[in-house]
Design brief:
The chain contains 7 helices and 40 strands. It has 465 residues and is α/β, with parallel strands linked by helices. Strands 12-14-17-20-23-26-29-32-35-38-40 form an 11-stranded parallel sheet, with helices on one face. Strands 16-19-22-25-28-31-34-37 form an 8-stranded parallel sheet, with no helix packed on it. β2 (28-29) and β3 form a beta hairpin. α1 (36-49) crosses α4 (122-134). The longest helix has 22 residues, at 238-259. The structure holds uridine-diphosphate-N-acetylglucosamine (UD1) and calcium ion. Calcium ion binds next to loops.
Length: 465
Amino acid sequence: MKTKLGTVILSAGAGTRMKMKLPKPLAPFMGRCLVDFPIEEGLKLNKAIGESYKVSLVTGHGSDLVKDYVTSSYPEEEFGFAYQEEQLGTAHALKCYFDQVSFAKDCEYTLVLCADTPLINMASLETLYKELITNDLDGVAATFLEETPKGYGRIIRSKEGGFHIVEEKDADDIQRKVNEVNSGMYVLKTKFILDHLYSIGSTNKAGEFYLTDLFKDDYKVKPVLFEDKMPFAGVNDLHQLERSEQAMRRRIVFNLREKGVRFIDSRHTYIDTENIGAGSVIYPNVHIDHKSCIGEGVTLEAGSIIIDSTIEDEVILKAYSHLEGAILRKSSVVGPYARMRPGADIGSESKIGNFVEIKKSVLSRGVKVSHLSYVGDAEIGDQTNIGCGFITCNYDGANKHKTEIGENCFIGSDSQTVAPVKIGDNCFVASSSTITNNMPDGSFAISRTKQSTKEGMAKRFLKSK
Ligand code: UD1
Ligand code: CA
């Protein structure tokens, strides 16, 4: 069966203006990489319109790094890869795609995207695609109006309804004044590309093979002018990178507000996901990465950082807490100043207080660890109360060991458990105890030296000023 739509993402350029060691497609963006965004929107479009689809990349600079990143990030997708050793222009990049990717020529339509336009969205691509289909055209180019069009190819419309594109370098004074510019994104019939691509030359000011030469006044091609130019914004330097990230976050905040998420001051939030439920409130300086998921009615107080974590409904995360790979279950209260490390699973209605660090531990319902404690490699049963300054001594210098504490226990302040150790249900550990042996259900343990008090002896130790 013929593949309906082949998407090719041109990403061979060096991106020297980014001043980064990484190849440009791997420049960081919203906690991921630039290239993730056209890939995902291309996949979405492909899924929306076609029974069959394929996404490919033309790589050049840092080719292996880009390939490794893409294949490991989308293990369920089968990508086509073409290598463009020398960047001889966008038409040459497209040639590399058709010459090297086995299925490229079999796709009925070809969507051309760039790796450095992370704000591109499925809706714009769908509009572009539909223009081509409904008008039975051979090619369409997405265009927009730019007050300062410098650097872009200009859209020169002919009286007969056709158009062609003139690059900045090749434009005369009149053409340079044209404000309608080429976004660099196109949908074309593959057969049309193959009929014309190989005859494109490089006799122009840049000496490059221009993909834009596929568009000529007397071809069945059309520019599609988009009112909103934001989706086509390119990232060529760190100024544009920051502006594009800000634009993307504004878009996310807008969608979240529409859904019922309230912001105290959204300009100072850094939210990379739309997975936040209605009724949640977000204070300033909250960071949430794209892998995290937040339920309904959650309060996220100022300065909290949430990475790869799940927060269920009605949780209160108090100020300046740091979560990574953690789960906070329904109605738990965490922080202020709490650190939840990978594998921290905080049971519903549990309370974790200030300066508490929890790593790879499962706390059941209603557990309290209110102050200044470290809990690692542990399991703690329902309703157990851990006093202030408790430590699971889980590491012996070579290996990590497990601590089990049953339900309804009371662990006095300033206690330690030396793992591996198991405390049963309904146990009581006296303050300042070091627990090295297992405790059966219902037992009491105390392990600290007896106090001896010498009357009148303090003056020997008190230093007079
Ligand atoms: C191109 C268009 C221009 C348009 C602009 C929008 C041409 C000739 N011109 O400009 O009309 O306004 O995009 O940004 O196409 N790339 C390769 N191999 C190459 C050259 C480029 O893979 O040999 C990739 C780049 O990595 C980038 C994309 O193609 O992702 C666009 O290249 P870039 O150099 O930014 O565009 P221009 O040619 O300046
Ligand atoms: Ca002690």
